[in-house]
Specification:
This protein has 246 residues and is α/β, with parallel strands linked by helices. The chain has one domain: Purple Acid Phosphatase, chain A, domain 2. Helix content is 28%, strand content 19%. It is built from 6 helices and 11 strands. Strands 3-4-7-9-8 form a 5-stranded mixed β-sheet, with no helix packed on it. Strand 1 (3-6), helix 1 (13-22) and strand 2 (39-42) form a beta-alpha-beta unit. Helix 3 (75-84) crosses helix 5.
């Protein structure tokens, strides 16, 4: 099977549609369909920060209803899940935009959306393994020794947040180590979470979060071709939100 794996969308629905069309998908039925039978997959964080989180999530719902969803949930997905369950989460770092969209709906539609989101999230895997284990799609990454591990708590923290140190940056974001620089595993890992200006290939991994919501690009990698396909963001460029690696 051939896949088109898409980076962090963060509510940039218009760019998502442009990217799907550039990849050759038809959306006539409301479900992306490729004439060659390719499948789309996502590294998570469909929502928050951008202008159209609900429309983006609703596309994921439709894919799931049609048994076409390949999606590795991210930290923003998890936070919105906790909000949907009624937990006391801080409405900052992006979720406030999704909640504002939600609160613009009639009350009954709000309740229905939150209930649907709970069932959506609860059916998602911690990470996605494809091509007989040779391809892994995961939000923030995964260390080789965690692949296939039964330590779900440790895996969950890593795949949602990356290799965090426990320290915080001045803006409140966690300090993360560069796990990919020491990766030596056989599976090819496609991930996102840490915005970079260009898709970053290193040690049989690729980071495809090119910061669309921060004015960068929305990027997909075509597998197994390893072709990178992007569309530009319509949002203002925020250079301080991108990570540079040595």
């Amino acid at each position: 099977m051939k896949y088109d794996i898409i980076g962090d969308i963060h509510g940039c629905f218009d760019e998502l549609i442009q990217l799907l069309q550039k990849l050759g998908y038809s959306l006539d039925t409301g479900i992306p369909i490729h004439p060659e039978g390719r499948k789309i997959a996502f590294v998570g964080d469909a929502m928050d920060r951008g202008p159209n989180s609900l429309k983006t999530i609703e596309l994921m719902f439709r894919l799931q209803d049609n048994r076409e969803l390949i999606y590795s949930p991210g930290n923003h997905c998890n936070k919105f899940y906790r909000f949907a369950k009624g937990n006391n989460v801080q409405l900052q770092h992006g979720i406030e935009t999704t909640v504002a969209e939600l609160h613009a709906l009639p009350k009954e539609k709000q309740v229905n959306f939150l209930n649907r989101y709970q069932s959506f999230y609860e059916s998602l895997p911690l990470y996605v393994s494809l091509n007989n284990g040779n391809l892994i799609i995961v939000h923030a990454g995964i260390r080789e020794n965690l692949i296939g591990s039964k330590n779900h708590k440790k895996i969950r923290t890593f795949v949602l947040y990356g290799d965090i140190t426990g320290e915080k940056l001045p803006d409140g974001r966690p300090v993360r180590k560069d796990w990919a620089i020491t990766y030596r595993g056989k599976p090819f890992i496609v991930y996102g979470h840490t915005p970079v200006q260009e898709a970053r290939f290193i040690n049989n991994t690729v980071n495809i979060d090119t910061g669309c919501v921060f004015g960068g690009k929305l990027t997909a990698i075509r597998y197994p071709e390893m072709e990178v396909v992007s569309v530009p963001s319509s949002l203002p460029f925020m250079p301080d939100r991108f990570t540079s690696f040595p």
